[in-house]
Amino acid sequence: MAEEAKNWLQRTKEYIDELKQEMRRVSWPNRKQVEGTTAVVIISVFMFAGYFAIVDAILQRATTGLFNFFTK
User: Fold this and answer.
1) CB-based contact 37:29 (threshold 8 Å)
2) How far apart are CA 63 and CA 23, in angstroms?
3) Distance between CA atoms of residues 33 and 27, nearest Å
4) The whole model's pTM is what?
5) Domain around 33
6) What's the CA gap between 42 and 39, in Å, rounded?
7) How far is CA 5 from CA 13, 29, 49, 61, in A?
8) How many structural domains is the chain composed of?
């Protein structure tokens, strides 16, 4: 049991060391890049929301029209 704990502790330490090395290799975006991509994401979300609102309204009218047609 003690051997397993040592082995687990050693593997965890190696994992953390490797993680630190990988994080040093990451090329982080600068502030301007983050602001630009954030703006694109926000605009895209609103555009998709508008698109789905229009599609939802069209489908709602079509479904209501069909129900009204067949229930008369």
Assistant:
1) yes
2) 53
3) 12
4) 0.60
5) 2-71
6) 5
7) 12, 39, 51, 65
8) 1
DSSP label at 4?
H
**Alpha-carbon distances, residue 71 vs 60, 61, 64 (angstroms):** 16, 15, 11
Angstrom distance (rounded) from CA 9 to CA 20: 17
Contacts of 37 (CB under 8 A, 6+ apart): 29
Q: Tell me, what amino acid is at 27?
A: S
Write the pLDDT tens digit of every residue in 3-21: 787 788 899 999 999 999 9
Q: Is the predicted pLDDT of residue 1 greater than 70, yes or no? A: no
